[in-house]
Amino acid sequence: MKKTLTVCVAAYNIERYIDDLMKSLIASGVMEDIEILLIDDGSSDNTFEKAADYQQRFPETVRLISKQNGGHGSALNMGIREAAGKYFRTLDGDDWVDPINFAYLVRCIKNVDADAVLSDIYSCRPNGKIQKEYFPALEDDTLYTFDQLASTVQWMSYHTIVFRTELLRSAGFALDEHCYYVDTEYVLFPIPFVHTVYYCKPPVYCYRQGREAQSVSAKNRQKNIGNSVTVTRSLIRYYKKNKLLFSPAQKAFYLHGVSIHCSWHVMSLLLCPSSDRIKRKLISYESNVQKHWPECYDEMTRNNRHAPVIKALRKSGYALYKPVSLASRNLQYAFAK
User: By three-state DSSP, how is residue 10 classified?
Assistant: First the structure.
């Protein structure tokens, strides 16, 4: 039986969370329509054993693939190669889905032909607070051209998007391996091949925020700062190599997405304890973005929440670096509480 959707789980040391993830998928009641790829990325805990148990219990739906550790991008690259579903979506190992809304999504896309599918998400914090992230300008159960979508939606996060599997394969890209923050690559690399997007409104993805071990925690953003530079280079290199494939709307969307990543990297540097060494890194990074993609450098001061900070830094010739860095760390600490 042809599967409607492949759910690809990059599973690295998730024994603590895999039951929540799998229970949410099982509770949806659409197991016959989906494929669950559990890609054990060289885990050192009991992830493999737990995943193997689910494969044994649901052999028609669950497939376990074990590989040497290669990072998130490596697991997704393998998932794209191995997927059997018409559509492909990622699900981080410590997250889960809303079973009712997930079932609605699968039923809707069964008879939809689109290059990508977009849906709302829930962001869930450790204190129990749940925030819905949504696209207010879009109408449920509606197929848009990419140009129509891009006129109202500037960004589609990793957690909101589903791609047609064959599109991902035919695009011929590979995500960086042994590298954090490749979610931006996953969203942006397919863009020149996306011409239609279907919107399915109910929130599907439940994104667990606030874990110290997450790659986006303040501590790990500092630790893995070099990975963010690697992704920046890959994003800019990809555009330069494929720029003739982009329509004006696709280019604008891609440009904005890269600028968001670059701005996020600047903020990651500001979260590091202030020093002359980090200041030099900040100035060097900004100079390189300006040199290799001036449009992206300019876009960083427009239409994103970090634009005022970046504007102030540049206008002061980075003389405001230390007070801005201190303020950024204080804000991050307050947000994490």
Answer: strand
Entry pTM? 0.94
Q: Which residues contact 99 (CB under 8 A, 6 or more apart)?
A: 24, 25, 27, 28, 29
Return d(Cα 271, Cα 327) in angstroms, integer. 9
What is the rounded distance in angstroms from the CA atom of residue 63 to the CA atom of residue 82? 10
Q: How far apart are CA 322 and CA 273, in angstroms?
A: 9
List, for residues 44-100, the tens digit of each pLDDT value.
999 999 999 999 999 999 999 999 999 999 999 999 999 999 999 999 999 999 999
CA 151 to each of CA 197, 296, 307: distance values in angstroms, whole numbers, following the listed order: 13, 19, 21
Segment 242-267 mean pLDDT: 97
From residue 47, alpha-carbon distances to 42, 75, 174, 262, 268 in Å are: 9, 14, 25, 34, 31
d(Cα 276, Cα 272) in Å, to the nearest integer? 11
Q: What is the pLDDT of residue 1?
A: 67
What is the C-alpha end-to-end distance of the chain, expressed in Å?
48
Residue ranges covered by each domain of the chain? 5-208, 218-336
3.90.550.10, 2.60.40.10, 3.40.50.11260, 3.40.50.11740: CATH of 5-208: 3.90.550.10
Please name the amino acid found at residue 45. D
